[in-house]
Amino acid sequence: MQADGNLVIYDIKNAVLWASGTYGKPFKGARLRVEDTGSLCIAQTKGPCLWRSGGIALCQPASDPTFKDAQVILKSGEILTPGQSVWSNSGSCALTLQTDGEMLLNRQCDGATIFSIRPNSDNPESIGADMSLSAFTMNETGNLQVTYLGKSPVMFKDIQSRSFGTLTTLSADLRLVKTANLPCPTPETMLKSGHSLRTGEEIFSPKLNVKLTMSSDGFLALSRQCDLRFIWFLFGKNDRSPITDHLTAVTMQEDGNLVIYNSKKVLVWESGTAGREFAGADLRVNNDGTICIARNGSRCLWTSGGYGLCDPVYSKKFDDAKVILWPGESFQRNDTVYSRQKTCRLSAQSDGNLVLTRTCDGEKNERAIVHGLWIEVNGNLMMYAEDKSWTYVMRNAWVTPDGANLRLSDDCILCVYKNGACLWTSSGRAYACPANNSDGEARLIANDDDLSNPAQIRQLTREKSSDLLMREVLESGEALSVGQSLWSPSRNVQLKMEWTGDLAIYRRCDNNSIWSSKTFSTTSNPRSVVMQENGNLAIYNREGLLDWSTGTFQPQFGGAKLRLQDTGSLCIYTEGECLWESGGFGLCEPSPLPAFQNGTVILNLGKSLKRGDSFTSNTQKGSCSLSVQADGNLVLVRSCDDAVVFSICHGVGFTENLGWDQEASVYKFELTDNGDLAITYDDSVRHTFKKISSLFNGSTDMDLRMNDDCRMCVFDNGTCLWTAHAVTYPCPSSGTTPTKAYQEVSGGVLAPGESLHIGQMMWSPSRTTQLRMQADGNLVVYRECDHQVIWASRSNYSGSRSRPLSLLMQSDGNLVMYDARHRLRWASGTAGDPFTASHLRLDDTGSLCIGKARGECLWKSGGMGLCRLVDASQFQDAQVILSSGKKMTKGQQRFSRNKACILTLQEDGNLFLYRKCDGIAIFSVRHGRDSPQGLGNGRNAFVSQLAIDVDGALHVNEATKYRETLFRGIKTTTKNSSDNITLADLRLSDDCQLCVFKEGACLWFGHAKTYPCPVTLAGSVLKSGQTLSASQSLHSPRHNVQLKMENNGNLWLRRGCDEELAWGILLGDVPAMDIPSKLTMQADGNLALYNSEKVLVWDSGTAGRKFAGADLWVNNDGTLCIAKNGSRCLWTSGGYGVCDPLYSKTFDDAKGSAERRKLEFVGEVETMIKCGRHVNIVNILGIVCHGRPIYYWSIARTAPFYPSLKTVDRASIRT
């Protein structure tokens, strides 16, 4: 029994399991007692009960006259459904079953919740974290029942089983009365100077229509009572912040500043109103939906702004205000605009601040760091930051605010204005300028004065904003925000974006939901649904990640709109006809659908399709195939154009998604005996997919059938009780060439410089696999046998500006994808020798191949196998590096059988597979986006461990699936002694190929560079008199550094940890005849580069008696070294070294002025050039330039036909 009056049960980890919800006034200091009636009672000492637990009555219930004349709210057999409310006699209390699944009993005097049934775990009547109510019933036996969404009714209070003497529970009813011993408190309307509003406390406006609350879960909210929506709020916590960082109180300080501190006494937010003008001011809540800082009850000195009341309040002062943004216009950095009388200035400063300033005294009203301000055609006010990420300043809180504009008044308040009403106003100072008090008083009337005649204002508002009430079409590019609705033409069906994040369709005949996106259970509640310009209807969460979409981004959907039909189905259309429909349950009286009368029956009652089963129907317009795929997805495809008509997918982002739970994949799809559609997951538990029996009383003749357009329907006596979502654009006519969803690229090969654009595809030679460039930016390989994805680039980012537009085979051999702003989003990592001038083709195995026009593959994408597994005997004796159930953690390594290849899980969270012969990375899983397996740039996008399960699915980061095999149900031929199944494992061959191996076959291959190792000289030494020719290389003793002479004449010293350059000689653009062909360690000790004409191109300048007979060494520290007989270095290349910098005592005591050293160095270089000496300054540039990163470059006196000192083209070199 806590001191704040809350009765709480905690678990052993101090997590709240249950609470009475009675914290704050008037419960502070209350005690708990047990009454003789069997009820718990929370009350002050010797005072009346402020909260009762209720419960079942005693064996001999006493007569209670309180309820004799009370309002009967549910009679025996009656049901309360979502959206319905019942009231007490006086109308002072209302019991409501909300559309979000909560049932609340509220009293109207202060909006307090008296009783609730909520979908979470810390309330008196809890129904579980993922549950929501769809019905509340008083049955004939006197028991109270609840029905959860998608489930059968269950007992809520079992009253019948108890004995009540001579009383019987038959025909009992449920009653509601307002009791006298629970009076409403006198609401506080003001927070006095020096006082605080603490957690659980609240203050009201004088008319009790607006409430300011300091909530228990850490945010300050101003809500309007008309629909309980927030109109202004400050969030003070997130899911990752500890409980001690949450907000605890908002304080009206004596200096006039409104401040919020967290539990650590750290300032979280302030109004910025400290000073002489505000000293001693109070905070009050106004009837117009704002909070106001004022002194002695006079006019506001500061106001919060916000969305206002349900009916927009007409405000004359903005009729003649300056319009600063019309619909579709934007306000960019360095732009400035003034109010009509130039008393206020709005500036987007060059430092990124958006500032609204009063010209009279320089006081700032609004400030935010932005790059630009934009008002959309639909009335949303948005701003975007330097990285071009968008943020809503004002989301439309009205049904159709189209045509609204942004205005700036002469008292420095911003207003999104339409038809005389402000749909949103900014916060800011509202007191008059010191030198213009009289004028200021005339302009700045107190907010409450505008409400002198509320009835007149409400009527005026309705006349002014009548076009805000109904909305029938969502145009391309528009959004439907939380609380907004779309209506069918006859107003018999409503589409609503709920506060829970769910997009739902309700039929008005009984307010039942007949379709929903099922996005109410996501961790970050979505706030809007967007009809994207590419035709995809999409819901994104607060983190900008896709939660749900219709998947209609193909070319024919471009510019499409959304409407709601009278049949209860959503329709995405372009020129009248629907291209996609949502389907769903029928209306209360479903209309006959002749199109399904002669349809093909797929399932009768009690029948099912299991994994691997398929149903094919030959219709007048072609064939339709419904199959439960091996990956657990249920897909209906029509043959005329290969379009996926309907699908149930495992994952998030699909019309019918099952979530990311690894067990949430379809094993069986059935039509149950009672007419419901059900899905059995891999965990063998059956889940109701569509509960048809809850809305209709079907007959025994019900079935699931398909019509000629491949659309599905649960059919009963001529009507459809449920229809599946479907693409509905027509198939190509029989006399024309079918228009496929993707245009085929002729030849099936991308030559250097060629691209694969969105909507294009290419086949493998035998047409067993297909490569598609999808509209969502994803590059995907499908196998034709069952249309499964066997490889994908995973480049389908949520932001439209971030999605790749095409696939480009660059002339340097790198396969890349760029977004609209030419930022690299994905790459194969195959730039440079030996990939230069390579082509891209798709193999019949399903692997992308980068190689010469008719040569062997130099790089393969790998991926899943085909439907018929190919023998992989080459991996039979390969090294098992990860067995089923085992893990590989950071810092660990795995080797192939002869240690030719090393798989390393690095400390930086990247996973690399190297081959020893040349140190290059064959396979990698990188933190970032521009690699074959990019994990993204999020802070959690690191590989902390790698594991493999029994079926061969690879996992990273504990619970995150990295690759999931498509072959769960393989029949075993080899028995395991412990559990009688063959376990999958991960193997690594000596040619550096990764394979998920099971029963003699590879279920998955890793991407890999497959070209042979270059010819290498023995060991790590170029002996005196020896030559390193083009394509040959040396490596350090630990194989962590490689020296290579390339065909283009460049000499590279490359470190194996990340393939970056440690040192190099770059020649830039030189004639072909002058390209060096060999590096020679001369007998005189000089390291020299000669071209094919035996002309010197570069040398180390180490010829002479001191260096004679020396060898060239490749060191483990990332340097070249000229030394005699393996002793200390006489010359070193210097450079950037290895990934982990080596400690060097040499420079511990280095002294001297950097400027002096620079001057000495410049003088020495000039002298060397005049004397004809060769100069290589790679060693010392880092010191001379104060340790700043520099470009690789060299200065050399070259052959006579190079008349001047030559520097390297820096643009082509990485720092």
From TrEMBL:
Domain Bulb-type lectin: 1-55, 188-306, 471-585, 747-863, 1019-1135
Transmembrane regions listed in the UniProt entry: none
SMART domains: B_lectin
Protein name: Bulb-type lectin domain-containing protein
Provenance organism: Hypsibius exemplaris (Freshwater tardigrade)
Lineage: Eukaryota, Metazoa, Ecdysozoa, Tardigrada, Eutardigrada
